[in-house]
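Worked example (supplementary).
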Amino acid sequence: MNDITAAWATALQLIAAFDPQLTDIVALSMEVSVTAVVLAALIGLPLGAALAVVRFPGRKIVVVALNALMGLPPVVVGLLVYLLLSRAGPLGELGLLFTPGAMVVAQTVLCAPIMAALSRQVLEDAWREYEEQLRSLGAGAARAALTLLWDVRFSLVTIVLAGFGRAAAEVGAVMIVGGNIDGVTRVMTTTIALETSKGDLPLALGLGMILLGIVLGVNALAQLVRDAASRRYG
Amino acid sequence: MLPLVLDKVAYAIRDHAIIDDVSFEITAGPRTVILGPNGAGKSVLMRLCHGLLQPTAGAIRWMGSRNGRGRQAMVFQRPVMLRRSARGNITYGLALAGVSPRERRLRAQDVLEAVGLAHVADKPARVLSGGEQQRLALARAWALGPEVLFLDEPTANLDPGATREVESLIGQIHAGGTKIIMTTHNLGQARRLGDEILFMHGGRLAERAPVATFFAQPASHEAAAFIKGEMPWQ
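After joint prediction of all chains, the assembly is encoded as:
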């Protein structure tokens, strides 16, 4: 019990002192996950909008597949991206494996389907309400999709943050494609896994607290944005 | 673009006929009211005319327009407002119609004043009252300078005061040279706003007559029953 109490104390000290090792790890985590979320949003949201607006044969199959991809195990994504980026792989020449770039790719692959699937749902509900009016005004599919994206923008904030939560919290994919190299590709989750298995609890606990704090803060912010928006825009 | 000619038009969903063998010609000028009980097919008929639905049989032609739809607009029973300002909702429609940004602002201001909403022009459209939203929907359609304006039960959700305002605006739009084609199940409104009545019953055109004739001496059994049912004191 004493060990754990001491670990908590040391963890708090590390945070309070802005321990350089700790801050580097946090900074890299944020850099990788934020970049991945931005890329995933640029891919996922337009895809969701297209699926909501355009009717084509086989659409239902695509929707089911997309929903299934939301539960994609991070280690499997890690493995696939690893195969893609390894020396012998089709994208091996880029030399991305075991760099933060590879981790961005893996988390983008992980998050884009979540954003596409969740936004598809929201946008399809909006489309049901707007379709006749927008078609009456002469909007084509592309224009309608853009209009819908803009009109549900406050719901999209929550969806993007759900993607961020997924990216920031996953271990498996970044571990495989990043390699958890000290000072290069070591992020919060991989450090927690490693330090815990080594028995070095303070750093793991400190990072754990920061991770929780970030996820909490981000979700509180999302709630504030939504509340303010629904008061203002109805 | 008028006259509008319907030639043996039918609309069915899985063998269930909603509109059956409807033929008529609508010319410029008089206000045409499509009257009938709920489920008579009024709204579907209007959507077919406006091009939101395609007939499953027969043909719909705008005899005076060489290519397509020409300038027409539609106002729905429940106004669909985008999450932007009242003014933004009007300029959005104008943008889709290819109007230049400068011209959009001028025209938006004009119609906002005409419908009495200039004082809430920069408020989010969705926080306006039901009556204000329906007037805004009229303004959005009016700004397009349509030759033909379709109105689908435009006052069905409004209280008497808001209904009067909307009816007066419809009169102004008609006075400006726009052909009015509207549906209603309200006999009083049909009398106030109509010049000619198309009476629909069970997906068929049961009767067509000038408004005075229609109410004084309905030719069809269905129309007589409808008038009697709606106004049993007569």
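Two points are worth noting when inspecting this output. The first helix of chain A runs from residue 2 to 16. Chain A touches chain B through 18 residues (CB under 8 Å).
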